[in-house]
Amino acid sequence: MSLGDQMQIRDGELIAAVDMGSNSFHMVVARVEHGEPRVIDRLRDTVRMAAGLRSDGTLDAERRARALNCLARFGQRIAGIPSLRVRAVATNTVRRLASPQAFLTAAEAALGHPVEIVSGREEGRLIFLGAAHDLPASREPRLVIDVGGGSTEFIIGRGLAPLHTESVQAGCIASTLRFFPGGKLNRKRWQRARSELGVLLQQFTEEYREAGWHEAFGSSGSAKAIDAVVQAMKLSDDGITPAALAALRDTLIDQGQIGNLKLPGLAEDRAPVFAGAVAIFEAAFEALGIDRLRVCESSMREGLLWDLLGRAGGSDPRTASIDSLAARYGVDRAQARRVESTALQLFDQAARAWKLDQEDREWLSWASRVHEIGLAIAHSQHHHHGSYILRHADLAGFSRQEQQLLAAVVEMHRRKPDKGLISALPQRYRSVARHITALLRLAVLFRRARRAESLPPMKLTATSQRLKLALPAAWLEQHPLSEADLEQEQAPMAELGLTLELSSM
């Protein structure tokens, strides 16, 4: 099977997405039909991870056990699906853990597949992608709001593309615990919630109002729960309105205690976090001037399925993010193309021995395109500057671990490689980081002249701990600087666990 064939997803194959939300864990399994995901199974568990997050960034034992038990059940259902066909992501609560990797290691063992952490903005992109595929086609901009357990995402987009994405640290669990401690509901507490949430939303509301949208949709379980109660109480005949939210707020305050909530249409498992969700939506309606919000059935888990198909079908958003980043920081594109071409030429000779696949080839391609972004800050230590940018930029399509991998490769592409950067990566990325760093270093060395010139025929032979590079003797004689650079490269390669052997042919 070729490298490209490994990535393609054909009709009839199964794919799956796991959404490890702060309130609920969701999994969807789909069969690909005519290039689209057709959901054939869904699993959900109200884990409420956010309720177990302590102030010191640790997770209490009960919530941790509940999360891992849920993932073990999910893992049984998708045990036969290859990991290339599964995307599992963790959101706000795992983002906020003091030591997320310790939890992720256990989570991946339980699920049997890799788990990635996504940023709030990447979460928003995936939410909009799922919602947009579910809604009728429209050329008008739309607003999508997703109130999760630990955070809320606000996205304005057109078609399938998000135009504005914001994530705020306010979710139905966190807000319920913060504003209604002990479960007590009264008007004073509600006013405090409205006021503080309104201040939190002010950071982007003016920009959103100026951008505008045609329709507003709620895509999460919180929106569905509120809509179900609004319809059951006959507060609106079409979606959620400001008047319906106000009537719902008054009803909640009249009942006085979260533990005693009795509302038509309210599921039992939603009652403990319902007040926080209503408060967030009421603040959002006021801040953004929303007059009606309808419910969308699809959200991030469906967005993950579509994103998985996009990655396999050649429309990977990560490539666009890399090219956009290179443009933003004024990368010398001609030099980047020369380095990329050389690096991939070397990759193709080492791939089989190092068991590298098409996705690994893409990592090398992306690293080549942005290995010099740090030059926009300073030439001195530009590999460190570039690494910092890659770690902290909002890059659509990339998880936090993926950005960490890319940053590590760029930081190690010159000077003495820091082995600690590799050991800090998730286990599944360490080998590829070591290998593509070695190839990128060689490509940069060969393209040191920064001009269009033909390279000599080169033969690269790889083993697990050795690289043998053979070059024409005449070329080496005519390029003494390159020969010296290659000889000096042997010590840095040793830091990557590789012995570099040079020979002439």
CATH architecture annotation of the largest domain: 2-Layer Sandwich
| Strand portion | 15-25%
Give the C-alpha Rg.
Answer: 26 Å
- Amount of helix: 40-55%
Largest sheet: number of strands, sense, barrel closure: 5 strands, mixed
How many DSSP E strands? 13
Number of separate structural domains: 3
- Report the uncertain regions: none
**Topology-level CATH name of the largest domain:** Nucleotidyltransferase, domain 5
> What's the CATH C level of the largest domain?
Alpha Beta
- Widest sheet: strand ordering: 3-2-1-4-5
Number of helices: 21
Quick one: overall form?
Answer: elongated
Question: How far is the N terminus from the C terminus?
Answer: 32 Å
Mean pLDDT: 96
CATH H-tier superfamily of the largest domain: Exopolyphosphatase. Domain 2
Structural class of the helices, strands and pairings? Answer: alpha/beta
